[in-house]
Structure formats: structure tokens, C-alpha cells
Design goal:
Blueprint lengths: L1 H27 L2 E2 L1 H6 L1 H4 L3 E15 L2 E7 L4 E7 H4 L10 E2 L2 E12 L5 E13 L2 E2 L6 H27 L8
Parallel strand pairs: 1-2, 4-7
Antiparallel strand pairs: 2-3, 2-6, 3-4, 5-8, 6-7
The structure holds zinc ion.
The site of zinc ion (ZN) has 7 residues, from strand 6 and strand 7.
């Protein structure tokens, strides 16, 4: 009996330790959403942040640098990066493509003096966490199967109906 209690104790200790170990990792995470940045822009101004979003629209080159717009679903913001960095991005989201998903580390500016007083992020590093792709125009297999199923069902019903009609002795209103 005592052994069992000890085991439970051990399990509890392990679970609690795991909780303690994982929480500082979460606390250190400086990733934010675009909306959070915009809404609390004064708090984040001049601070290093991490942000994840889809590259959208198109890359606007400015000399050796470039503007890349990212959207994380909550909002969109311009990222100022080197032209070389921007060249690493393959897909930009639009009606036809899903853009590359970028994880950007950089400094947020509430009203960037360098760039006309607009909010932006000056990228210090980024990686592509998920490659973009062409949006699929194909009909999913499940839909085709479902449609085929319904068509067969309709045919069977129609045939049965025809057979029933033919079997009926009195067809006063038919023909
Ligand atoms: Zn700027």
C-alpha cells in the first residue's frame, strides 16, 4: 500500500517539475500578434519582439532594402529588411497563392522616424517556418466520392421508381 502511495507521489513530483520547467520558457517568449503590437504600441516601441505572419502582397524594393508586408490574421504590418533577406521569400499571399509564413525577430517602432512616422518592424533575423504554395483549385477527393455516391443513389432510385411504375397495373394518368 505504501509503495503505491510512493508511486503516486513520484508521479506528482514529475508532473509538477515538468510544469515548473516549461513555464519560464513561456515567460521568456517575446512573440506577439500584430494586433497586440498596434494596440499596445507605446509599450512595445523600440523593443525587440518576435512575430509570425504570412508574407502578403508584394515585396517593395528600396535600394539595398525592401518592405515586406506580413499578416497574422489579426492585422498586417510592414517589415523593413535587407533586399538579400527579402530574396529568400518565395511566395506572397494573394488570391492565387498562400504566402510563406515568416518568423521575424526585430525592433518595433510605433511611429518610425526613418520611415514617415508609420508603425513598422525593423527585421534583425527571420526564418521561413512554413513555405507558401499555390492555392488548390482541385476538388477534394471526398467531394468527388460524395458526388459519385449521390449520383449512383439517384440512379438506383430512378430505376426502382421506373420498375414500380411499370409493375403498376393501372396507369390511368400515365403516358
Ligand atoms: Zn522604419
Amino acid at each position: 500500500m505504501e509503495k503505491k502511495t510512493n508511486l503516486i507521489h513520484c508521479a506528482l513530483v514529475v508532473v509538477l517539475s515538468l510544469c515548473l520547467v516549461s513555464s519560464p520558457v513561456l515567460a521568456e517568449d517575446n512573440s506577439v500578434s500584430v494586433n497586440e503590437l498596434i494596440e499596445n504600441s507605446a509599450d512595445y516601441n523600440g523593443k525587440s519582439i518576435a512575430i509570425t505572419g504570412e508574407a502578403i502582397g508584394e515585396c517593395l524594393e528600396r535600394g539595398n532594402n525592401a518592405w515586406v508586408n506580413i499578416s497574422d490574421g489579426s492585422n498586417a504590418i510592414g517589415i523593413w529588411m535587407t533586399k538579400e533577406e527579402a530574396e529568400g521569400i518565395t511566395y506572397y499571399g494573394d488570391y492565387k497563392y498562400t504566402g510563406d509564413t515568416l518568423v521575424i525577430t526585430g525592433v518595433f517602432y510605433e511611429a518610425c522616424k526613418e520611415h514617415g512616422g508609420e508603425p513598422d518592424i525593423h527585421c534583425s533575423a527571420f526564418k521561413i517556418s512554413k513555405a507558401g504554395e499555390m492555392k488548390s483549385e482541385k476538388i477534394p477527393a471526398a467531394k468527388i466520392l460524395l458526388a459519385a455516391g449521390f449520383t449512383s443513389l439517384a440512379l438506383i432510385l430512378y430505376m426502382t421508381y421506373r420498375q414500380l411504375l411499370n409493375k403498376k397495373p393501372e396507369r390511368s394518368n400515365a403516358d
